[in-house]
């Protein structure tokens, strides 16, 4: 009988461990998924700042624009994939138009002028979105192909759609690496980061290059918005909180570095997700539940900024500075 009780206790302990392992894997994947989404935002932002030296606060509005067009086109056609492609192209077109009409006049101005002008663009995009799409949130359904779950080790499952977002982000990272490292356009982008006057003197159409880079960054933001639109409501102002995290990502990774953006985005995503899930539980071991939730939530919100401060204390230019 004693051996039987011991065996049952071992089975319970083993089941608890497997459940905990599955839960940890699920949260790690959630962190990676958040990180990949942040990478899609930060990659365009870091390219624009690295090549043009431009602080673009309106990048979050392009994220919102991609989400709105994705939701609207998917609602009209019944196809999520057409919506995603439409959001991607709409954000790229809006980025190119904004660069030609507004941003092009800011390159020789100081950063304060750039901040004020791009902040004004946030207000303009928000009011345009409210005028065109209305005040009520839009909703996107996960495509049927990705509506299931993938089994996790130890039991349970993980949404296939979230895994697809991770796959899209990693494929985008590989594509950006090949674009920048192996193509003529990438060579011009790298040269523009180090000496834009010289490549202009060598005959490169610097205006066209800047428009292409800005449109590429806008398209990536629109892609991120369309993908995230199936996980949350699509509404006015949804891009600003993500923009703040994207700036944290490029500061940690190193301004202008695609590799740094990917690594730091995953670090930020995992840190933020695990902090929100586990810190309240840790404080719950010695604090009342309400206090543990409050303290844990506050510290988890601070965790990514503590991470940024820790990295900058040892590497002031970020993990992978482009001039390293």
Task: Outline the structure in words.
Helices cover 76% and strands 2% of the residues. It is built from eleven helices and two strands, in the order H-H-H-H-E-E-H-H-H-H-H-H-H. Strands 1-2 form a two-stranded antiparallel sheet. Strand 1 (149-151) and strand 2 form a beta hairpin. Helix 1 (2-52) packs antiparallel against helix 10 and helix 10 (258-283) packs antiparallel against helix 11. The chain is globular and about 65 Å long. It starts with a helix and ends in a 10-residue tail after the last helix.
Question: How is the biggest beta sheet arranged?
Answer: 2 strands, antiparallel
Number of helices: 11
* SSE series: HHHHEEHHHHHHH
- Mean of residue pLDDT values: 83
Gross morphology is globular
Helix content: over 70%
Radius of gyration over all CA atoms, rounded: 22 Å
How far is the first residue's CA from the last residue's CA? Answer: 67 Å
DSSP strand tally:
2
Oligomer classification: single chain
Strand order of the largest sheet: 1-2
Structural class by sheet pairing and helices: mainly alpha
Q: Which residues form runs of ≥5 with pLDDT under 50?
A: 1-19
Strand content: under 5%
